[in-house]
Amino acid sequence: MFEALATIPAEELTLRHERCRKLLDEFVPDAGGLLVFARPAIYYLTGTLGTGCLWLPREGQPLLMLRKGEGRAALEAPTIPLATYRSYKDLAVLAAEAGAPLSATIAVDMGGLSWQLGDMLRSRLGAHRFVSGDQVLAVAQSLKSEWELRILRSCGERHHMALHDVLPQLIRPGMSEREIAHTAWAVFFELGHQGILRMSAFGEECFLGHVSAGDSGIYPSSFNGPLGVRGEHPAVPLMGYAGKLWKAGEPLALDIGFQLEGYHTDKTQLYWGGHSSTVPAQVQAAHDFCVEVQAWAAEQLKPGARVSDIWAHCLHWAETAGFAEGFMGLGSNKVPFLGHGIGLAIDGWPAIAKGFDRPVEKGMVFALEPKQAIGGLGMVGVENTYEVTDSGGACITGQEYELLCVQD
């Protein structure tokens, strides 16, 4: 009676399965397969956002084992064998019956399970040894196929149109952060945003993004990013505060993600309340520095580069150029990275930071977000999403990075 809304091509899924198997050889060669619990990772490997787990053995067909939703999974993942279970102790029996028995050593996405569920898995499958397969999935998902890149490019086009072309016509100084957030939502939904932003870090949440007017950009924040935000409420420190107005003579930073068909792009657009003649020299210089950093970092995003080197260079550059204090945040808001991978999660692997030394590969996608905090005023800077090509990072979220001036 029903048809799938969309499916991932079988050849695309096969590519992903084989990539994970090769990475098992590299990271956990003693594991006989990968057992995946995080729903976005299950989607990545099957095409359905299943509630349960996926067993990907070294050889042969994977097996999707679900607690619920087998009818939908049959529509969306027609090439993946299905089974249902009630307890973790059923998994070994189901895998054996499917001709793909669980191996003695199993790689598990440990980030996809709570401590409680991890202990339960070990207790129910005591004959098996579990090792981390998180790096396998992180690296696999960082390498985008042409099928994925087409979605991301379309996402980026819409993202730029929303923040750079449409929204400046609808906002003005005197509006509250909450009013601006609601206006942004209307624009984003009209352009196809599908209503959710996913994050992979445990406990991290994101809704729309940050709407930070004036000193909200340096307001104390627990979110792992450089931009401060007052947010809706202490229980929901996201979006924008109804009690904070964007005033003339203040910057407004909109750090908002766009999501299309499960994939995300990230972009920050800076606005100034007033005519361009009212922008202080300090503000313009700080913003220009961030644009320069973004351009240089994008040029370095070539196959073989190390993102740790990019971070080290930009950190030193900020110090020598006199921007060290507010670079990538002020005080406790300062973060030790320049950007991050992105795809099915906003905060994808790797971070552009110290310690991330695996060479960049063609087809990876990064968000570059150099920002500069100015004490007593707020935040300026940029963020855009880049596809790694042979000649460097190609921006997929627009080519215009100026401070947009908006008057009453």
Description:
The chain is of the alpha+beta class and 408 residues long. It has two domains: 10-140, Creatine Amidinohydrolase, Chain A, domain 1 (3-Layer(aba) Sandwich), CATH 3.40.350; 143-406, Alpha-Beta Complex (Creatine Amidinohydrolase), CATH 3.90.230.10. Helix content is 32%, strand content 21%. The protein has ten helices and 17 strands. The chain has helices at residues 10-27, 39-46, 70-76, 90-97, 115-124, 134-142, 146-166, 177-190, 281-300, 307-320, and strands spanning 33-36, 51-57, 63-68, 82-84, 105-108, 129-132, 209-213, 251-260, 263-273, 339-341, 348-351, 365-368, 371-374, 378-381, 384-389, 392-395, 404-406. The strands form four sheets. It has a six-stranded mixed sheet, sandwiched between helices. Helix 1 packs across helix 6 (134-142). The longest helix has 21 residues, at 146-166. The protein is elongated, with a radius of gyration of 22 Å.
